[in-house]
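Entry for the shared binder. Reason: the reviewer on the internal report wants the predicted structure included alongside the sequence.
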Amino acid sequence: MPLILAIETSSELASAALLQGDMLLVRESSGVQTHSQTLLPMVQSILAQANVRLSQCAAIAFGAGPGSFTGVRTACGIAQGLAFGADLPLISIVTLLAMAEACRAETGAHEVLAVLDARMGEVYWAQYSYADGWQTVVAPTLSAVADVLPQPKDGLLACGNGFAGYPAEFALQAQRHSWIAQARAEVMPHAAQVARLARTAFTAGQLLTPAQAQPIYLRNKIALTTDERLALKAGAAK
């Protein structure tokens, strides 16, 4: 089985994982402002615990986004640097798909809606269906909560911190959509799921060179003006 190193920093939680066969070692750290300082020490720690060198890995996987603008840049940049230095291929994993994999692992759900807080009154979301592998039902999208409209599927389970970020907005959605009632807000992107998805991608030959790796951005504007923030707060109050 390939030895896969995975990193994920698209949210407030930074994580690293090393996967080979049934062996899974993980490290994690909270605080989006410190991802660039904590990620490399976590990688070094996990390699030391496994008593392996970076060059012994088959590939390095990273959560490519969508997610925090700084976070997805951090994961991609560090993965590129590590891969270039060790002459290893990269594997890009969509953050929302990693969330769907986490949801399936925890609940057994095969129909998953992943919703990640995008700030600025919006969420990143995508819908996936699992049957001997994941299929994309709705591709990663950036929208307001009111525009989160998944395809009807029996047993659809929603997950992600978008539900915790916008409880009032999703409460309005819940009046029309039953899938919100059992949303698992605690499910977040993690390197453990990035590693597991990367193992499948490695077998399929879905590899990148460091120069080919890119973050997934769905938004060009990354901050609101003062007037826009005030208007957003006023709308939430109403």
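Summary line for the report: The first helix runs from residue 35 to 50.
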